[in-house]
């Protein structure tokens, strides 16, 4: 079979870029641990108010874990519970979030925290808040007429001051 020279270049380029992309995705997924939000933890979204830990949304200190605090968040149209938290600077926080009704977003401005909260699933993310300041949390998945009013505030404070 005769292949034109340009055809060979194109094939090499095409197969080469495919291999390159697979390598990038592979490194990102297996080495750096980038994965789609896990759907490992499921929950009956109609029972959220009765199921721990979502029956008590808020920030609490934990002992003996890789993180210092657990922040339990329940999103619903059109608010987050809790509406404001005070986090000591430098602490590691595990965010545990879900939604009561429709899909909501959970984006923390000025950080790389950005989650999609889906009914029936629990979303978790561990992060360290190492800069003091106020961080606005907004919903970035359109959820209805009050979408633009959905917000929460992180106040990262130096407790020694
Ligand atoms: Cu929204």
TrEMBL record:
Tell me the protein's name: Cytochrome aa3 subunit 2
What is the protein's species of origin?
Answer: Domibacillus aminovorans
Gene3D superfamilies reported for this sequence = Cupredoxins - blue copper proteins
Start and end residues of each Cytochrome oxidase subunit II copper A binding domain? 55-161
Keyword annotations: Copper, Membrane, Metal-binding, Transmembrane, Transmembrane helix
Q: Which reaction does it catalyse?
A: 4 Fe(II)-[cytochrome c] + O2 + 8 H(+)(in) = 4 Fe(III)-[cytochrome c] + 2 H2O + 4 H(+)(out)
Its biological function? Subunits I and II form the functional core of the enzyme complex. Electrons originating in cytochrome c are transferred via heme a and Cu(A) to the binuclear center formed by heme a3 and Cu(B).
Can you tell me where the transmembrane regions are? Answer: 9-30
Q: What GO MF terms are annotated? A: copper ion binding; cytochrome-c oxidase activity
Major localisation: other
**Among the entry's GO cellular component annotations, what is one?**
cell envelope
Read off the InterPro entries from this record.
CcO_II-like_C, Copper_CuA, Cupredoxin, NosZ/Cyto_c_oxidase_sub2
Cellular localisation:
Cell envelope
Q: What is the lineage of its organism?
A: Bacteria, Bacillati, Bacillota, Bacilli, Bacillales
Say if the entry is tagged with keyword Transmembrane: yes
PANTHER family reported in the protein's UniProt record:
CYTOCHROME C OXIDASE SUBUNIT II, NITROUS-OXIDE REDUCTASE
